[in-house]
Amino acid sequence: MSKLNILIFFQIIIIINSIPTCIVNSNFCNYCNNLTNLCAKCEKSEILIPDENGGCKGAKKCINGKNYCLECDSEQKLCINCEKNYYPDNNGGCTYSAGCEISYMGECLKCKDDYILIGIGSPLKICKSLSLEIYKNCQEINNVTGFCKTCEEGYYLTSIDHKCVKTKYCKESIFGTCISCDPCYNYDKKTDKCVLKELNLTYCKQSIDGINCDLCDDGYYLDETGICMESPFCSESFYFKCTKCLPGYYLSTFKMCTNTEHCYEVDKVSSICTSCQNQYYLDKNDYICKSNLEDGPYKYCTVVENNGCYLCEHGYYLGEDLKCSNSRHCAESENGVCNSCSNNYYLGLDHICTDAERCIYSKDGKCIECQEGYYYNKFNNTCEEMKDQFLGCKFTCAIGDKCCECKDDYYLFLNDSLCYDNTKEPFIKCAYVYEDGKKCRICIDGYYLGMDDDKCCKVQNCKIVKNENECLECNTFYCLDVKKQKCVDNDFLDDINNKIYFSCKRTNKEGTACEECLDGYEVNKEGYCVDNGLCEEKKDGKCNKCKDILINDYSLCANELFGCIRSSQDNCLRCDNLDDLSECTECKEGYVKNGYFCEKKE
Hints:
Layout: H1 3-18, E1 29-33, E2 38-42, E3 48-50, E4 56-58, E5 69-72, E6 79-82, E7 87-88, E8 94-95, E9 100-104, E10 107-111, E11 115-118, E12 126-129, E13 138-141, E14 148-151, E15 156-157, E16 164-165, E17 170-174, E18 177-181, E19 185-188, E20 193-196, E21 204-206, E22 215-216, E23 220-222, E24 228-230, E25 234-238, E26 241-245, E27 250-251, E28 257-258, E29 263-266, E30 273-276, E31 280-283, E32 288-291, E33 301-305, E34 308-312, E35 317-318, E36 324-325, E37 330-334, E38 337-341, E39 346-347, E40 353-354, E41 359-363, E42 366-370, E43 374-377, E44 382-385, E45 393-396, E46 403-406, E47 410-413, E48 418-421, E49 430-433, E50 440-443, E51 448-449, E52 456-457, E53 462-467, E54 470-474, E55 478-481, E56 486-489, E57 493-494, E58 499-500, E59 504-507, E60 514-517, E61 521-523, E62 529-531, E63 535-539, E64 542-546, E65 555-559, E66 563-567, E67 572-574, E68 586-587, E69 591-594, E70 597-600
Parallel strand pairs: 31-33, 47-49
Antiparallel strand pairs: 1-2, 3-4, 5-6, 7-8, 9-10, 11-12, 13-14, 15-16, 17-18, 19-20, 21-22, 23-24, 25-26, 27-28, 29-30, 31-32, 33-34, 35-36, 37-38, 39-40, 41-42, 43-44, 45-46, 47-48, 49-50, 51-52, 53-54, 55-56, 57-58, 59-60, 61-62, 63-64, 65-66, 67-68, 69-70
């Protein structure tokens, strides 16, 4: 590679590294913006906000009595006093780990600088200081166990205390000095080395039981029979696989050494690379793996022979121009996109070749959409002009004499399998109409069928539809938010906007309080729905015990604010937790609380 090419390569690397990288389900991000490559929506959005690097960062917000915090500072940003055994973080909450920067409900999400988060995948996560003695000369740390995983060059990992020492095959150490060695090794205090015991195992470096080899000498690997076999470029192996190669050689995906970086599979005899990892192609002129993502004749190619592509990546096809294209039957392409097709094939707007003339979009080699004014006939695989009964048809069924799907603004009448206008009453936004022609069966995408009048509406869970944009009444257990024209869960408590929809059927026009409740409930002066006649015992004007009956298969429990409410927990006396009404806070006599549930006393 010339000096100019090397300079350009590093300039590209610098540019790439400067671009924010957003990855879904990474760095607490749930949704990425494809235009900015920044995070658009974070996990736990109440404490995390998108940052400038494509991930999420803490949004300082301190609330007394939340996240284990007892007292916030004057600006309500940081907690200054936490519950016992908890420490303030930099996000307005508390965690049981002193080195934590961001936490949620006591669980640490991110550590401060010079700390590492330990316990990934387990309920308990803590921040450990990187300055601890156990991490001295450590190169990589295991995020699950908290032990050192790999050491810096010239240091070796002990097998018991997981520390880095200069003594190879050391099992245990104190303050950086080895005190005991791995099995089959003796510690020599004069040389500070672990010396291999005498073994009758050819080319074997370590044997635990003295009979079978577990680790071979440099340049050998352990095969399936337990014998050390010569591998000229392997420096270390473990349990039948090479784990480290000599300088200048690379470990393939199948744990064989080759002089080709990014190699997937290697010929065991010659050590020549035979296939490359994803996003690389094998150039059989020099048997080097090269990137197949760069624009050019070898984009999406996996094998190159005689200066031409021989095999393409999955999902791409070799065209007549010996380039990889997104379409079969391609004649000419550029950077993986087909520009013209072979004889008797036609190029659609999606740059896919099909044998149906006037087809603009296809999938798996079959046409899915024809030009305007044409429909797709599955029987003879052609796009035919719309006439007579096929007006509005998108494509026919297999035998070609009936329409199976209509174009936009049409619905399919299941009686005659013909398409009719769905922009007019009575089937506005309907996709399929029953055989009797009286009711809509399925709505178009983005619209939902009302349960009582079978009309289509943009409001999900609507029972009675006023028009395509408005709902008159929601389904059972849903409340109509009149202001937003949405059907929301009527067991939903929105304390952020100070709205409580419990047992509400319809809100007021402002969407701030309930206007009409479900049967058996009535609106009080605060705009909440409370029970009417379901309470068996009251104290200080509030329900203390509910009747022992079932309402729609639900038990009842007493709530300080709402009176008697539906509960999924049997044998529950009270459920006063407004953050989670499904949690039982007090059980009936003869039962004890176990988490959310009430269990019978033993």
